[in-house]
Structure formats: C-alpha cells, structure tokens
Amino acid sequence: MQKKPVYKRIVLKLSGEALQGRMDYGIDPGVTHSIAGQIKEIRDLGVQVAIVIGGGNILRGSTASKFGIDRATADYMGMLATIINGLALQDAFERVGVFTRVQTAIEVREVAEPYIRRRAIRHLEKGRVVIFVSGTGNPYFTTDTAAVLRAMEVGADVIIKATKVDGVYSADPLKDKKAKKFEKLSYIDVLKKRLKVMDSTAISLCMDNSLPLVVFNLTKKGNIKKVVLGEHIGTVIEG
User: Fold this and answer.
1) Fold of 9-237
2) DSSP element (H, E) containing 223
3) DSSP state of 22
4) How confident is the model at residue 1 (pLDDT cuts 50, 70, 90)?
5) Is the Cβ–Cβ distance between 28 and 89 less than 8 Å?
6) Run of H or E including 14
7) Region of residue 21 (left: phi > 0; alpha: psi -120 to 50; beta: else)
8) Which pLDDT value is given to residue 176?
9) Mean pLDDT for the chain?
10) Cα–Cα–Cα angle for 10, 14, 15, nearest 5°?
11) Over the range 123-140, which residues count as b (16 or more CB within 10 Å of their CB) and which as e?
12) Angstrom distance (rounded) from CA 155 to CA 230
C-alpha cells in the first residue's frame, strides 16, 4: 500500500552547483533530467512543489566581488545566473510532462513571469511546479534566504534542502572522517554551533516562523520521495 505524503506543499532549495554534476561548471543535462523525474514522482502523489535555485555553477556574487567587481553588481550577475538555471530546469520538467512556471524577482518578461505571490499559489494549486529565480531580487541576500521567504509567502509546510551529503555534520564529512552526523537539530543549535546549513539570516527566519527544514542527499535517486513520505533520512531541523 502506497504511503501518503506527510507534506502537502514543499519548497525545494537547490544550489546551482547541484546542476553541474561532475562537471567543473555549467549544467549537466543528466542531472536536470534526474531531478525532473524525481519531482514528477512526488507531484503525481499530489504534492505541490516550488523550487528555489541558486547560480553558483555559473557565477556566485560573493566570489565575483573578491575579484574586484562591485558587490551589488556581482550579486545581480549571480541572480541572472539563477534565471539560466531555472530555464534549464523548466525544459527538463516539461520534457517529462510536468508543467512549470518560472517566476523571477528581476523582470525578464520574455522568458519568465514576474514574481507575484497569489499567482504562484494558484499555479501550485493547479499542480504546476513553480521555479523561483533571481533570489529576492536584492543584492546581499542569498538564495537560502530567498527560499525561506518564498516558503513562508506561499504557505509551504517544509523546506527541503538538497546537498551532496546525507544530512548535517559537525564538520565536512568529505574532508573529516570523524565528522558526526546529526539526526535532529534545533535552529538554536545550528546557530550556536555555526553549522553550515544555511546562512544565519535564513536560519533565523525559519526559527522565527517555525518552518521545518530537512537536509538530505540529492545524489541518491528517490530521496526526494522518501522525504515527502516522512521517512527518516537526512537531518531534520525544527524547534
């Protein structure tokens, strides 16, 4: 008997780096196709899905600013990179029969809708996957913060953050074999331990609005479905 999803509406936070797969930069079509297939699975279960995508596989504003580019300008460049990623995801979704809408905080009317909260909610109610791009539309704010803002605005039940490891660790498990995995954490713990889950602004927003966060490994196929069915994978952060 098929389990029922424990979440009705989710926001999936994807880093730009997640799309590059094993490439040094750019977009791996195999990765976008895999993500599209996994999202189709949960969409077919009746789960409403919104996605916030980063742009680090093309350009990260905070990194570009270190090379002499004005920080605000660099951040806007990074936001434009997220639009490219959003369009790549949209193409992959629609190839597997999942209708989508790309909504952007920076207007690019030829390729995406402007972000309008009520319209986004209506798309979700109609079963469309909504891809939010260009962050908050403001420099100095990360796409992590954008994900929390959008999740609160559309009334999401949870944020699920895709990473390359299976949860939150005390240190980078790819570099430190003694790193300890946390099954559950409170937001205060994340802030006190300075764990690199999301930036402190995003974590504080989650805490202030009692929005749960699940951190999981995207590279293992089927994990998105496991999260929405309530299986114990990754790390759950709440409270």
Assistant:
1) Carbamate kinase (3.40.1160)
2) helix 223-228
3) T
4) low
5) no
6) strand 9-14
7) left
8) 85
9) 93
10) 155
11) bbeeebbbbbbbbbbebe
12) 19
DSSP H helices in 16-125: 29-43, 61-65, 71-95, 117-125
The dihedrals phi and psi of 101, each to the nearest 5 degrees, come to -135, 135
3-state secondary structure of 181: strand
Phi, psi torsion values for 113, nearest 5 degrees: -75, 150
Handedness of CA 94, 96, 99, 101 (dihedral sign): negative
Q: What is the pLDDT of residues 17-75, one digit of tens each?
A: 999 988 888 999 999 999 999 999 999 999 999 999 999 999 877 777 778 899 999 99
pTM: 0.93
Q: How far apart are CA 91 and CA 207, in angstroms?
A: 34
Query: Helix 200-208 vs helix 143-154: angle between axes, to the nearest 10 degrees?
Result: 20
